[in-house]
Amino acid sequence: MNNDQLYIGIMSGTSLDGIDVVLVDFAQTSPKLLNSLLLPYPATLRAELATISQPGANEIERLGLIEADLADCYAAAVAQLLQQSGVQANQIEAIGCHGQTIRHRPNARQPFSYQIGDMHRLAALTGIRVIGDFRRKDIAFGGQGAPLVPAFHQAIFADPGKGRCILNIGGIANLTLLLPHQPLLGFDTGPGNCLLDNWVELHQQQPYDAAGAFAASGQLLPDLLLQLLSDPYFAQTGPKSTGREYFQLQWLNQHLAGRSVAAADVQRTLSRFSAGTMALAISQYPVSDIFVCGGGAFNPVLLADLQSLLPQCYIGTTAELGVAPDWVEAMAFAWLAYAYDMRIPGNVPAVTGARHAVVLGLEFLPC
Fold it and tell me: What is the mean pLDDT of the chain?
């Protein structure tokens, strides 16, 4: 093993389920996942992150404390990964850390995307160089700062003979279109798990709908489904991106106003809605195979809805391509750190809308 090519990737996504951390070896042509773990958020921090994602009082004071707490959790995850792997901190080239998105406003008067987590503190606690702040440079060059994973998807999942879609179903769903002899494309399709998670937490006091059981107990509400699908975001073409701060309970409650509906029926409809927005996007392209990653890969009701809407497509998970669906995004941010060091552009202008490709990230030193 060439230890000079070891990178750690950290991803904490819009589902707020916890911290995915991976150890990746880039010594060979194809990145090799060596180890991985999920560190769930402490309940208090998870609640604080959910709250700070919406406008509220005393935000700056709260944000300072949350950023430090988040860095402490990132560092704890790294320490556990190193111990689990039998690797020392000085063997790691860098940590690629996405941070936790609390605002994503690509269509604001001055577009911005804000990922929190004190990267200086993370570097100091781990003794490892950190590469972070990946999105803002793309925005500075006219892009939306998202999605950033398509370049990595292309590097490890492309097949010159097949039209593939890599579908990441996190809180927000995004896709990468790997089409033979065509430019790389990708964009956010809309809600993945975020509304499903919010609704089941509100009515079942569970952080997510395990195996889609709550949705499976309900009945589809066709009128509500049509209303949800009428949101203007779904008529937009790429480049486009969105966030859970838009698709959240307040947005859903606006569509539920005046309706008397069972909570399980709403959950069932939200499953079809998320699948429907993904299917609508994918159906515009000559895709034969869909490989799913992210938490949605473990929701059989959501995947069955997607299959029913795209009967012409094969739907599997990225495990069939050699990477378990849990770890694809964290691997992508390890790759972005590697790309920073190798001076490889990390964005794709056709995906983000940037004027040209640029090397992404900022370096935070441990001393």
Answer: 95
Say how far apart CA 140 and CA 137 lie, in whole Å.
Answer: 5
Query: Which pairs count as long-range contacts for 199-208, CB under 8 Å and 24+ apart, including other chains?
Result: 199/249, 199/252, 199/263, 199/266, 199/267, 199/270, 200/267, 202/249, 202/263, 203/263, 203/267, 207/16, 207/17, 207/46, 208/15, 208/17, 208/295
In angstroms, the CA 197 to CA 101 distance is: 17
**Distance between CA 60 and CA 56 in Å, rounded?**
10
Q: Are strands 32-40 and 185-191 parallel, antiparallel or unpaired?
A: unpaired
The string over 323-362, giving b where at least 16 C-beta atoms fall within 10 Å of a residue's C-beta and e elsewhere, is bebbbbbbbbbbbbbbbbbeeeebbbbbbbbbeebbebbe
- In terms of pTM, does the model score above 0.85? yes
CB atoms within 10 A of CB 112: 14
Are 155 and 148 spatial neighbours (Cβ–Cβ below 8 Å)?
no
Angstrom distance (rounded) from CA 282 to CA 261: 30
**Which residues are CB-contacts of 93 (< 8 A; sequence separation ≥ 6)?**
4, 5, 6, 7, 129, 337, 338, 341
Domains of the chain, with CATH numbers?
Answer: 3-146+327-364 (3.30.420.40), 150-321 (3.30.420.40)
> How wide is the angle at C-alpha 202 spanned by C-alphas 278 and 20, nearest 5°?
60
Contact 164, 287 (CB under 8 A): yes
Predicted confidence (pLDDT) per residue in 199-257, tens digit: 999 999 999 999 999 999 999 999 999 999 999 999 999 899 999 889 999 999 999 99
Contacts of 304 (CB under 8 A, 6+ apart): none
DSSP state of 41: P
